[in-house]
């Protein structure tokens, strides 16, 4: 609420009073009436001034309160912005860490897949080698079995030959011994 400052009433009152005095010279009742109206006018001015001062004070306090509230609001907004920036920074850092972790996990997974593939390849190679060795062993066993059979048959024939030769030799030895014994006996009889 705005108030307009009014000029003091007593200035106009004095001029009016002077004019009244000129026109009412010798009239004491008119002079007293003008004096009373001047006092009443001054009281109205003082009352209006008090109202105006109170209004100005209230308006100033209101503006100060508005400024204080605005500053508080700016401070709160600034704090909220700082908190949001900190939260955003945390989220950004967390997201970066999560991406790094995810990338690391993908690398590990890829490496594990490579290692698994390498192990599988080595297993296949070893199985193939074992298969080849097994086939070679079977082939060699078959060959050696045939060779052993030939050797066995050869040994049997050789043993049979040796037995025959030994039997003949024993028989010859027996015959020779018997012959020698017979000769010795005959010789003894002749000498006797």
What is the topological layout?
Blueprint: H1 9-23, H2 28-191
Coiled coil: 67-101
Biased composition (Polar residues): 25-40
Region (Disordered): 1-45
Descriptive account of the structure:
The longest helix has 164 residues, at 28-191. The N and C termini lie far apart (191 Å). The chain is rod-shaped, with a radius of gyration of 73 Å. The chain is mostly helical and 192 residues long. It has a domain at 46-145. Helix 1 (9-23) packs antiparallel against helix 2 (28-191). The protein contains 2 helices and no strands. Residues 25-40 have a biased composition (Polar residues). Keywords: Coiled coil. Residues 1-45 are annotated as: Disordered. Residues 67-101 form a coiled coil.
Low-confidence stretches: 9-29
The succession of helices and strands, N to C, reads: HH
Radius of gyration: 73 Å
How many helices does DSSP assign? 2
On the 0 to 100 scale, the average pLDDT is: 79
Q: Report the β-strand fraction as a percent range.
A: under 5%
Q: What's the total count of β strands? A: 0
Q: Roughly how many Å apart are the termini?
A: 191 Å
Q: Estimate percent helicity.
A: over 70%
Structural class: mainly alpha
Outline type: rod-shaped
Major sheet attributes? none
């Amino acid at each position: 609420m705005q108030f307009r400052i009014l000029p003091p009433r007593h200035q106009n009152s004095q001029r009016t009073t002077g004019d009244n005095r000129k026109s009412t010279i010798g009239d004491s009742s008119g002079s007293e009436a003008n004096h009373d109206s001047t006092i009443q006018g001054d009281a109205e001015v003082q009352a209006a001034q008090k109202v105006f001062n109170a209004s100005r004070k209230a308006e100033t306090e209101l503006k100060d309160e508005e400024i204080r509230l605005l500053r508080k609001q700016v401070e709160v907004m600034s704090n909220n912005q700082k908190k949001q920036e900190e939260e955003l920074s945390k989220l950004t850092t967390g997201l970066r860490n999560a991406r790094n972790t995810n990338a690391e996990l993908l690398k590990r997974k890829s490496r594990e897949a490579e290692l698994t593939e390498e192990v599988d390849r080595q297993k296949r190679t070893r199985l193939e080698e074992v298969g080849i060795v097994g086939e070679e062993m079977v082939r060699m066993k078959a060959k050696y079995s045939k060779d052993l059979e030939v050797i066995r048959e050869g040994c049997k024939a050789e043993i049979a030959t040796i037995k025959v030769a030994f039997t003949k030799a024993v028989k010859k030895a027996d015959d020779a011994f018997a012959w020698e014994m017979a000769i010795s006996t005959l010789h003894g009889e002749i000498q006797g």
